[in-house]
Amino acid sequence: MTTTRTGTKPAAKEYDRAAMASMVGTTVEWYDFFIYAQAAALIFADLFFKPMGSAGQIVSYVTVGISFVFRPLGAIVAGYLGDRLGRKRVLVATLAMMGAATVLIGALPTYASIGIWAPILLILLRIVQGFSTGGEWGGAALLAVEHAPTKRRGFFGAFVQMGVPLGMLLATGVLALCTFTLTDEQFTTWGWRVPFLLSVVLIGVGFYIRSKVSESPVFAELKERRTESNTPIRTLFKKHPKQVVLAALSFIGTNGNGYMVIGGFIVAYATKTYGLGKTELLIATLASAVTWGVFTMIGAYWSDRRGRTTVMNVGNLAMILFAVPFFLLIDTGNLGWIYVAMILFSVGLGLSYGPQPALFAELFPASIRYSGASISYAVGTIFGGAFAPTVAQWLLGKTGGTLAISIYLALLAAVSFVATMLIKDRSGRDLMV
C-alpha cells in the first residue's frame, strides 16, 4: 500500500473515487475533442471556411491542431497552481473552462450568419479548450496515481487514459445516432450542434464526482511539511530538462498514431475516397475505441509487473510494424477490412498508452510533479498528434497515396521507442521523494 511519511493511508474506496474523478474529466476532454475533430473533418470547412475554397479543409484540420499550441501554456499555469495549491482545485477549474468552450461551440453562428467573426470565434474557443486541456491530464493522472497503492499505480493510473476510448465511444455513439436519424441537410444545418450541447451533461457529472474526492495524499503531506515548491517551473527546467524531453518524446508515437483514429482523418478519407457511409465508419471507430480501452487496461496491469518502459515499447513496436499494413487494409475500400485495420491498429495504441500516467508520475519529484507531467504531456501532443491529420492530408495531396502517411506514423513511433528506452524505469519509487 502507498503510505505517506506521516503514516496516513487512503481508504480503499478513496482509490476508486480518485480513479473515477480522474477518468470523468479526461472523458469529457476527449468527448469534446472527438466531436470537434469529426465535425472539422466532415462539415466545418463548409460551415466556417467556405470562402477559402479547396483550402478550407486544410484550414479546418488546422483548427483541430491549433488548440494544442496553447496546451503548454495551460500546462505551465495549471502546473504552477497544481504544485502550489493542490491537484483538486485546478482540476475543477480546467473542467469548467473546457466544458464551457465546448457548449459555446455548439451555439456558435456560422459564416453564413456572421461572416468572418464565425471562424474567429471558433478559433478563440479552440484556444480556450487547448489552454484548459493543457492542465487537465497532468492533474488527473496525479490524482489517480498518488492515491493508488504502490504495486497498482499502473492499473489505477490507466483510468485516466480510459477517458480516450470512453470519450470516443460516447462521441461516436452520439454522432452515429445523429447521422443515422437525420438527413445530411438536417445534420449540416443544425444536427451537428447536438453533440456539443450535450456535453453539459458530462460536465455536471464530472463536477459531482470531483467534489467527492479528497486531495492527493502526497500533496497534502507536502502542504503539511511546507515543502511545496515556490518556483516549480524554474526548478523543473533547471534540474530536470532531460526528463521533460524524454517524457514528451516517449508520447509522440502514441499521440500521432492515435490521432489517425480520433482525429477524423480516417473517417473523412474513407468517406470521400471510397464513398463509404459516415455511420458505418463511425461504428468502425467505436470498435477501435473498445479495443483501445481493453488494451490500455492490459498494458497498465502488465506494467505493474514488467515495468512501464518495457510495456510501452511493446506497444511502440506494434505501431511501427503495423503502420504500412494499416493503410493497405484501409485502401481496400472494403468495410470489413477497415474494421480489421481499426481494431488491430488500436492494440499497440493501448499497450503504449496504459502505463503512461504511472511512468510520468514516477519520473518527477513530488514538489514539481504536476508541472513536469503536464508540460511533458502538452509538448508531446504538439509534436505528436496536434497536426497529424493536417500532415496526413498534406502528404496525401502531395503523393497521391497513403504510403507516405504510413512512413510518417512509423517514424513517430520509432522516436518514442528510442526515447522510452532512454528513460530509467522507476516503478514503485517513493512518490514523496
TrEMBL record:
Q: Where found in the cell? A: Cell membrane
Domain (Major facilitator superfamily (MFS) profile): give its ranges.
18-428
Q: Does the keyword Acetylation apply?
A: no
- Signal peptide interval: none
What function does the entry list?
May be a proton symporter involved in the uptake of osmolytes such as proline and glycine betaine.
Q: Which family does it belong to?
A: Belongs to the major facilitator superfamily. Metabolite:H+ Symporter (MHS) family (TC 2.A.1.6) family.
Q: Tell me the PANTHER family matching this sequence.
A: SHIKIMATE TRANSPORTER (PTHR43045:SF1)
Q: What is this protein called?
A: Putative proline/betaine transporter
